[in-house]
Amino acid sequence: xxxxxxxxxxxxxxxxxxxxxxxxxxxxxxxxxxxxxxxxxxxxxxxxxxxxxxxxxxxxxxxxxxxxxxxxxxxxxxxxxxxxxxxxxxxxxxxxxxxxxxxxxxxxxxxxxxxxxxxxxxxxxxxxxxxxxxxxxxxxxxxxxxxxxxxxxxxxxxxxxxxxxxxxxxxxxxxxxxxxxxxxxxxxxxx
Length: 191
What we know:
The protein is of the alpha/beta class. Helices cover 39% and strands 17% of the residues. It has seven helices and six strands. The protein has helices at residues 12-30, 42-54, 81-92, 98-101, 105-114, 147-151, 170-181, and strands at 35-40, 67-73, 122-128, 131-134, 137-141, 157-160. Helix 2 (42-54) links the parallel strand 1 and strand 2. Helix 1 packs across helix 2.
């Protein structure tokens, strides 16, 4: 929906099942049996849910996971203080916007307790850091997600001067995403 819309939104779990359909399509229609995911914002949580809760191991002799690498751009892995503030506003208007509610810091803390399994998938994250304050905190952030929330427990991480919506741009893709996914024919494909 449009920005600050109160229209119904899918939950993280519902979107993870949509992701499952797309991965199945990539495998069967495009013969891509091991895919890499590049996810922006909530898409990283959706991908983590898919990996932890839905993704099954490959059958047969191939032990590699269906998702080889998850690259997250500005994912609120510990929630967003802006979602906390926005959710209060929506609730005061009698509205429940599930996508905002699920990005609250307390909700993502619960999410992290149940979505731990990485199943051999390599995780990487890029955090935007151009702003010193946001919503109700003094913390470097991209305008939506604080740097510590994006980095969370992910060892392969980096920072960018991009704001949240620009993390999907060409500069960050070339500098951060492409080097993590472009593996030559003699490269180590095992995560």
